[in-house]
TrEMBL record:
Belongs to the NtaA/SnaA/DszA monooxygenase family. PANTHER family: ALKANESULFONATE MONOOXYGENASE-RELATED (PTHR30011), C2H2 FINGER DOMAIN TRANSCRIPTION FACTOR (EUROFUNG)-RELATED (PTHR30011:SF16). The lineage of its organism: Bacteria, Bacillati, Actinomycetota, Actinomycetes, Mycobacteriales. Residues 24-379 form the Luciferase-like domain. Transmembrane segments: none annotated. It comes from Rhodococcus sovatensis. This is LLM class flavin-dependent oxidoreductase. The keyword tRNA-binding does not apply. Its EC number is 1.-.-.-. GO terms for molecular function: oxidoreductase activity. It comes from the Bacteria. It is an enzyme of class 1 (oxidoreductase). Keywords: Flavoprotein, FMN, Monooxygenase, Oxidoreductase.
């Protein structure tokens, strides 16, 4: 089973900074991030993952969700870890492939081969204004650029042959120019000469993650990703998604297990069921309506929900979304509301603790049982764990659930490889 942790501030549950279990005053410190990454490494996670959005959260008045630059944080964390993979998010809409290729190759050098890139196209419209544009490109246009962006980055990572450095003191030859190639890329969106400013990094081609579950997102993932992060709530739908990803990988000429499918879970662990439920209630008590509605609005591409009666059944908004909006996330939320007959208020409350991911509230054994059930059914190759609160939520998962998974032979007890790609191949 492959595990990654989604580390964000003091946890993903809205306004959890108010909980005495968190220390929001220190969440910007290197000490905080060091504690988190070491916990995940102690738990033998494949990777520590930092998500990113290029806008200040609209709910900042209530939520402590600022967004440090992932690559900078991960570079610092490379120095305090030795095994765990370090995956950062970079947008293909508001970046340049040469910059991204360099940043991640450098992170791979600094971490001895532990870097990975989460390829996102950015679905939040307010990010556009931070990059000199008054609107987000449409969904399909973003993915078109994203496809090309990844090709350029991968070509740059291949520009230096593994043996391009000669380093011969006697002759004074440092590098073999025949083994350092320009890429001369000329496409629809990018013209990039190359080569890279630095030699091939330890992994060369870094593992890629992809996290959009729309048909276009899945197609990109099937072609290029080593991991796909997804939001899934039901075993049948998750299995169908994983099977589609495997089939798409094969159609793209890859092995069916080339792409590891990792659905998100938010574990709330208690020594007893009632302790877990009480903890979930306590964490949920900090969630404000203002934040949940703000989060929903952002998830629906900025669609204003204020005109809807909060206690009426959730409206079927499928035809009403703006063209730039994310596809899979709103679909999932609308389906959840319609299937379960939720009101706007109830849906908002439902997604507030786990940014819409699947909460697993229970004892170490029941949580391990659920993870095992999905894993064995082929719905998941592992999970991306989004702790509701940090660091304690991660600590409890590592102390209580991880040993159960290890005892069942589902999770490594020690790292056998040293690079992220080796962890994923285990
Ligand atoms: C676990 C997980 C992590 C994600 N992390 C990010 C992120 O850091 N930045 C981002 O813009 N989108 C992130 N996303 C969302 C998707 O990448 C994507 O933006 C969105 O779902 C739109 O894709 P789609 O229309 O193909 O579904 C994440 C999704 C999941 C499931």
């Amino acid at each position: 089973m492959h595990l990654a942790v989604f580390a964000q501030g003091v946890g993903v549950s809205q306004s959890v900074w108010r909980s005495p279990r968190t220390q929001p005053e220190s969440m910007h410190s290197l000490a905080h991030w060091t504690r988190l990454v070491r916990l995940a490494e102690d738990g033998c996670f494949d990777a520590f993952f930092i998500a990113d959005q290029l806008n200040l959260a609209p709910t900042i008045a209530k939520d402590a969700t600022d967004r440090p630059d992932p690559i900078v944080v991960l570079a610092a964390l490379a120095a305090v870890t030795s095994k765990i993979g370090l995956i950062g998010t970079s947008s293909t809409t508001y970046n340049d492939p040469y910059t991204v290729a360099r940043q991640f190759a450098t992170l791979d050098q600094m971490s001895d081969g532990r870097a990975g890139w989460n390829v996102v196209t950015t679905a939040i419209a307010t990010a556009a204004a931070n990059y000199g544009s008054d609107g987000l490109p449409d969904h399909e246009a973003r993915y078109e650029r994203g496809e090309e962006f990844v090709d350029v980055v991968r070509a740059l990572w291949d520009a230096w042959a593994t043996d391009a450095i000669v380093g011969d003191r006697a002759t004074g030859v440092w590098a073999d120019l025949d083994k350092i190639k320009a890429i001369d890329y000329a496409g629809e969106h990018f013209q990039v000469k190359g080569p890279m400013t630095l030699p091939r990094s330890p992994q060369g081609q870094l593992p890629l993650a992809q996290a959009g579950s729309s048909p276009t997102g899945m197609k990109l993932g099937a072609r290029v990703a080593d991991m796909v992060f997804t939001t899934q709530h039901h075993l049948a739908a998750a299995t169908e998604f994983a099977e589609s990803m495997r089939a798409l990988a094969v159609a793209a000429g890859r092995a069916p297990d080339a792409v590891k499918v990792l659905p998100g879970i938010t574990p709330i662990v208690g020594k007893t069921e009632s302790e877990a439920r009480e903890l979930a209630r306590e964490i949920g008590s900090f969630i404000s309506e203002e934040s949940t509605l703000g989060f929903l609005k952002q998830s629906f591409g900025g669609l204003d929900l204020s005109g809807y009666d909060l206690d009426e059944p959730f409206p079927d908004l499928r035809g009403a979304l703006p063209a730039h909006a994310s596809v899979s996330r709103p679909e999932l939320f609308i389906k959840m509301a319609l299937d379960e007959g939720l009101t706007v208020r109830q849906l908002a409350q439902r997604v507030g603790m786990s940014i819409g991911h699947r909460p697993l509230v229970g004892t170490p054994d029941t949580i391990a049982d659920e993870m095992q059930r999905w894993f064995e059914a082929g719905a998941a190759d592992g999970f991306i764990v989004l702790p509701a609160d940090l660091p304690v939520g991660l600590e409890e998962f590592v102390d209580m659930v991880v040993p159960r998974l290890q005892d069942r032979g589902l999770l490594r007890k020690a790292y056998s490889g040293s690079t992220l790609r080796e962890h994923l191949a285990e």
